[in-house]
Design brief:
This protein has 14 helices and no strands. It is mainly alpha-helical and about 325 residues long.
């Protein structure tokens, strides 16, 4: 995973890129036209559902993604419930990270692994505690977003060719629960980085713990390899740094409403095209997308202090995740 080379192509990515873009942009556009853009920003987070099982046939994704959506909704509900109590959010970050990692590794969920369950928990707690939205409205909007994204992901089944594929049973698509040696080591790393990440957040800003832990979990990924951890850590740091600069430029345009929906959709589409081939380049677009989306939901778009905070959090989390890779034995 060199900084100066792209990985091999794994087939066309534009279908999942288009699905993710629609799942993200459509709720924002529709709710903006209905005069409730804040609900659109919340529902747009449900587009994370589309990002799983991207290489599987649609008939199999139709069976796997409901479990993903359910996990995301549970994570959001946990974040909403913990939001009023800061120390409970800190405990929740650890519990959600460990539980989602155990399930993701134990059932061979594959990339992007436990990352988005941690982010959804943290984002939900942050938005509910920062924005004028009630807990039940937030959860209803997020659940609706997950459901919409699922429908987008399985929409190719309207055509006869995708329906003709025979899907494997769920027990083969999500085998488990069982952890092999690699899975156990990945889980141990998540346990360590989530606990240490929360402790580090206490010294920086407890409200940012989910971003530090999320960065560390993202670096861990689903590959049980020391070199991969170091490479992903470097990619995450540099990609986030450049991405924060891109966010600063985009924020100067003060995107809002339908323009913001279009911008986020384009960013999501580009991310899905490049993420499997160049992680750092993907993060150049992931960083402004997340900052714009959370900023829109909390009314903080254009606040450069937040971008600087995210850089610090990412460097800390990525370094932590990369360092945990040394727990793996060196491979000859």
């Amino acid at each position: 995973m060199s900084l100066f080379a792209f990985g091999p192509s794994r087939g066309p990515r534009w279908p999942i890129g288009l699905q993710a873009a629609v799942g993200l942009a459509a709720p924002i556009a529709v709710m903006t036209l209905l005069g409730q853009p804040a609900l659109g920003y919340i529902a747009a987070s449900g587009a994370f559902t589309v990002l799983f099982a991207g290489s599987s046939p649609v008939v199999e994704r139709a069976r796997v993604l409901p479990f993903v959506a359910a996990g995301l909704v549970v994570s959001a509900a946990a974040g909403v419930l913990a939001a009023p109590v800061p120390w409970l959010v800190l405990v929740g970050v650890v519990l959600v990270a460990v539980a989602s990692a155990a399930l993701a590794f134990g059932f061979r969920l594959g990339p992007p692994g436990p990352l988005f369950f941690v982010l959804v928990f943290g984002l939900s707690a942050h938005v509910v505690s920062s924005a004028p939205v009630s807990a039940h409205i937030y959860l209803a909007a997020f659940t609706a977003g997950c459901a919409f994204s699922y429908l987008v992901a399985v929409s190719p089944l309207l055509l006869p060719a995708p329906r003709a594929v025979t899907a494997r049973p769920v027990r083969e698509l999500l085998p488990g629960p069982a952890l092999d040696a690699d899975g156990r080591m990945l889980l141990v790393r998540v346990v360590i980085v989530s606990i240490v990440g929360v402790l580090l957040a206490l010294a920086v800003d407890p409200g940012r713990s989910y971003w530090i832990v999320g960065a560390a979990v993202a670096v861990i990924g689903v590959a049980a390899d020391r070199t991969a951890a170091l490479q992903r850590g470097v990619h995450r740091m540099l990609g986030t740094l450049v991405g924060a600069g891109l966010y600063a430029l985009l924020a100067l345009l003060h995107p809002a409403g339908l323009w913001l929906a279009l911008l986020l959709g384009v960013l999501q589409f580009v991310i899905e095209l490049v993420v499997v081939r160049h992680y750092a380049l993907a993060l150049v677009f992931i960083t402004p997308l997340v900052l714009l989306l959370t900023g829109a939901a909390t009314g903080e778009i254009g606040d450069m202090s937040i971008a600087l905070e995210r850089i610090v959090d990412t460097v800390v989390g990525a370094a932590l995740g990369a360092a945990s890779g040394f727990l793996h034995p060196r491979r000859d």
